[in-house]
Amino acid sequence: MAPFLLAFILFFVINVFIPGYASVISLLSLLLLSSLLGIASVGQTLTIVIGGFDLSIPAVIGLSNVLFALLYGAGYSAFAAAVFILALATLIGLANGFASRYLQLNPLVVTLASGSIILGAIWAGTHGEVSGFVPDWLVNMVSVIGKTGPIPLPGSVVIWLLIAGGILFLERKTKLGRWMFAAGANPRAAELAGVPMLLVWMSVYALSAFLAATTGILLAGFSGAADPTVGAAYLFTTVAAVVVGGTPLTGGRGGYGRTIAGCLVVTELSTLLVGLGLDQAAQQIFLGFLIVGLVALYGREPHLSMRI
């Protein structure tokens, strides 16, 4: 509840420093930017809940962004391009989960390596020269003035709301959701209780990559062109959203409901810092100190495995 209260307070604080921020356009802009971060942060949240981490999210976003523009520009339908990209991303996620759990490799190392391979493949395949274009309807989906049929919201915001509802249902009402929290709280106890740990890890990492790819496709519409580095900022901001929302990096607690609030807070903080004249580097320094402080605060609580 506290992160949502913070988001509410920040909104009025920003309005003091940036007069007119409370306009409809500003609200839609906040929701639009938060939706892109929110979709990308699903995977980071769930991998942290099970005791892992996903450093490949930026690379998958960049890969999907470039591939969609290239395939659509080459004459493939948007549907075919999206299906291919989402399937490829899912395979990447399954490989990350398999290597992390079955091969017992550190997920930080696994996802960092896979991200490096993906980015290397992008540069090798394009030689730094990215072309292609995106359909007009995709641009409209990520436009502040865009609408979704009779709904006066951009398509990406509607997609985020649907995804958020699905993830919250997954966490609270399904067996896989219970398994995820059990796996993060005490892996050994969960395994002894019959939780299929390999299935949990592969499912979560596949979902993380799938939604990272979704973010990459939406960002292609947001920028109107392909950019292999478009996901770079999302490594830092997805972690910030998770931590600011209150999900501890130790795993087994928290959840996506908190990350939703974290996305709003991180987006508002970025807007406020820009309004105060701080550049990208200064913003990252500020948010970095915020994350360190919050991690130190959450780190004072013992891990769930120490309390069971």
Structural class designation: mainly alpha
Q: Say how many strands there are.
A: 0
Give the N-terminus to C-terminus distance in angstroms.
25 Å
Report Rg.
19 Å
The number of helices is 13
Low-pLDDT residue spans: 304-308
Name of the level-1 CATH class: Mainly Alpha
- What share of residues are in beta strands? under 5%
Q: In sequence order, what are the helices and strands, one letter per element?
A: HHHHHHHHHHHHH
At CATH level 3, the topology is ABC transporter involved in vitamin B12 uptake, BtuC
> Could you say how many structural domains there are in total?
1
- Overall mean confidence score, pLDDT: 90
Helix content: over 70%
Architecture in CATH?
Orthogonal Bundle
Shape: globular
Main sheet?
none
Question: Could you characterize the architecture of this molecule?
Answer:
The chain crosses the membrane at residues 6-33, 78-98, 105-125, 151-170, 198-220, 232-249, 256-275, 281-299. It is a multi-pass membrane protein. InterPro entries: ABC_transp_permease. Its main location: membrane. 73% of the residues lie in helices and 0% in strands. With 308 residues, it is mostly helical. It has one domain: ABC transporter involved in vitamin B12 uptake, BtuC, CATH 1.10.3470. The protein is globular. The two termini are 25 Å apart.
